[in-house]
Specification:
Blueprint lengths: L1 E6 L3 H10 L5 E7 L3 H11 L6 E2 L2 H6 L5 E4 L6 H10 L3 E5 L6 H13 L4 E4 L6 H11 L6 E9 L20 H5 L1 H8 L8 E10 L5 E10 L3 E8 L8 E5 L2 E5 L8 E8 L2 E8 L4 H14 L9 E2 H18 L1
Parallel strand pairs: 1-2, 1-4, 2-3, 4-5, 5-6, 7-10
Antiparallel strand pairs: 6-15, 7-11, 8-9, 9-10, 11-12, 12-13, 13-14
Length: 326
């Protein structure tokens, strides 16, 4: 059993806490927020003892009652909280992105590596069996050698708010930091045999607050796979992935938040079929269960979930992507 604490009580923290009710290897013990109102409401909804409510993040991290911390605060606070967790020997599940830049991410990496700490980045689709299933289908040779991948993640934000986390530079705003990790982490799944991601081209636009609000990226995976993605705050994109092989195409209509029953499409010259995946738990519950099991068994690495090494590789691309637009 892993006893959890949550720092930051926004929307994702509520989803996380509700999802934890679906699993048996995790229990929510402590919560921390700078808002007394959020603390009181959250504690009532999830039956948190009054002595385990903190208005200071560091006090929660120092608590001896918890084994792991879910970091659900604003992007600009992630690295400092990761360093505090390492200092206090707490296992970590951190909302994406790990930091605002590669320099920040490297600070986290050095501390985690030096102290042999346990860290995962909360990119939940990696834990869903749909991800495992389409990778197995590709490995079986169903669509042949992969030569192209397309991916998108975008949603329309109706009004630009200067103090919103999405549009404030200081808070780590921008479409690339908010959702760019999804397509980049998807491309990372194809980095076998020491393949690396190489940025080829990018273009984008900026909001009135100076953060990127839409961008496209072309990546080379290894030597032969060309990958393309688009992220946006300006349009509701298709939010899908297509994998092109020499014998056919795999389309994933819902890659980022697959439902408990999801499907992928396999399109070939003379055939078409859907391959369904059924999961008894929600995508976030699967993430909690798998990560908690890794914590319990003291397993630092897992190919499906985003560990610290992969977080660094993803941040390298996000960092170059953002700089290339400037």
């Amino acid at each position: 059993m892993i006893n959890w604490g949550i720092v930051g009580l926004g929307n994702m923290a509520n989803i996380f806490a509700k999802s934890m009710l679906e699993v048996e290897n995790s229990k929510l013990i402590s919560i921390a927020s700078k808002s007394k109102y959020k603390l009181d409401v959250f504690a009532k909804n999830f039956k948190i003892k009054s002595e385990n409510k903190y208005n200071n993040y560091i006090d929660l991290i120092k608590s001896k009652e918890i084994d792991a911390v879910y970091i659900s605060t604003l992007n600009n606070t992630h690295v400092d909280l990761i360093l505090e967790c390492v200092k206090n020997n707490k296992k970590i599940l951190c909302e994406k992105p790990i930091g605002l830049s590669l320099d920040q991410a490297n600070l986290a990496f050095e501390a985690i590596f030096k102290n042999n700490n346990f860290f995962y980045e909360a990119i939940a689709y990696r834990s869903h069996p749909q991800t495992k299933n389409f990778l197995e289908l590709i490995d079986s040779g169903e669509i042949g050698e992969i030569y192209k991948i397309e991916s998108s993640f975008g949603y329309k934000v109706k009004r630009v708010k200067k103090d919103s986390r999405l549009f404030d530079k200081d808070l780590g705003g921008g479409a690339i930091l908010d959702v760019g990790c999804y397509p980049v982490s998807f491309f990372q799944l194809f980095c076998k045999n020491d393949y690396q991601l190489k940025l080829l081209k990018s273009k984008g636009s900026f909001s009135s607050t100076g953060v990127d609000d839409e961008s496209e990226l072309e990546i080379l995976i290894g030597k032969n796979i060309h990958a393309y993605c688009k992220v946006s705050f300006k349009d509701n994109l298709d939010n899908s992935c297509k994998i092109y092989g020499k014998k056919g195409i795999i389309k994933i209509p819902d890659p980022w938040l697959p439902a408990q029953k999801s499907y992928i499409e396999v399109i070939k010259d003379n055939s078409y079929y859907k391959k369904f995946t059924t999961c008894k738990k929600s995508v976030y519950a699967m993430q909690i269960e798998i990560v908690a099991n890794l914590f319990i068994k003291n397993l630092p690495n897992n190919i499906k979930n985003v560990n610290i090494n992969e977080s660094i590789e993803i941040m390298k691309i996000l960092d170059m992507w953002r700089k290339s637009l400037n």
